[in-house]
Amino acid sequence: MISEAEAVVMEVLWLHEPRSAEEILAEVGPTQGWQEGTVKSLLNRLLKKKAVQAARDGRRYLYSARLTREQYVSQQSKGLLDRLFGGRVAPLVAHFSEQRKLSKRDIAELRKLLEELDDEQR
Amino acid sequence: MISEAEAVVMEVLWLHEPRSAEEILAEVGPTQGWQEGTVKSLLNRLLKKKAVQAARDGRRYLYSARLTREQYVSQQSKGLLDRLFGGRVAPLVAHFSEQRKLSKRDIAELRKLLEELDDEQR
DNA sequence: GATCATCGTTTACGCCTGTAATTTTTCAGT
DNA sequence: ACTGAAAAATTACAGGCGTAAACGATGATC
User: Fold this and answer.
1) Who among B74, B91, B101 is closest to A89 (CB)?
2) ipTM of the complex, rounded to two decimals
3) Which residue among A33, B25, B26, B47 is least packed, with the fewest CB closer than 10 Å?
């Protein structure tokens, strides 16, 4: 499984691939306060975990994701759902509702989503 | 922050408090395959993290949660939401919908939930 | 071809985690 | 008070993580 710091690197790859280590550092260094060596280490760990791949480009490598964001999001989401909500979505949403964490926009979008499901249905 | 193994211990405390280490072991040992020392260690770490408290009861302690399940669930859920869905609930639900992970029951419950929100509204 | 700057690779290191074994403390009974 | 069982506290230890420094390879330059 991929760690949180590793996920930060993946996110920038998912935005735009392939990228060199230098480009990734430029993207992520300022926000995270990471040095070059840190990014290099994370990339190597991701390589070892087969979450990214590297293609030589002259003296450097260009990295791209092998793990898709969809796959990652699914793993993480299912993990949380299973651990905390008995694997069901409605209780999760109910939780946020009780917490008053549903925005107007969320509610509108959820409504539309349910309508669309309704349409598919019939 | 509390780890996954620690969360397993918390879950049994949340079901019924307070409990002795022995009772917790009885609950969790078989399912997790943990020895006595393992549970004791986890309890001590949870004490250090102030997630549980212990009250002497003769030669042993009775443990109870200080962190509530609500607090824990909120932290975890918000963490996932922020990291993966821009902090918004609707995209999370959309994700599960696309993944065909919404059960009939989920859909029915979500519908009811939205109706209730509607009622509060007016 | 030797040298320097650049990448990448290897090693480091302290903290957290999972999983105990070991040691110490504490009652209960003699 | 002394001993033994039971509980708790301390220590252990390997692997992962965050964060880099050190080392090595490689291509560009003189």
Assistant:
1) B101
2) 0.89
3) A33
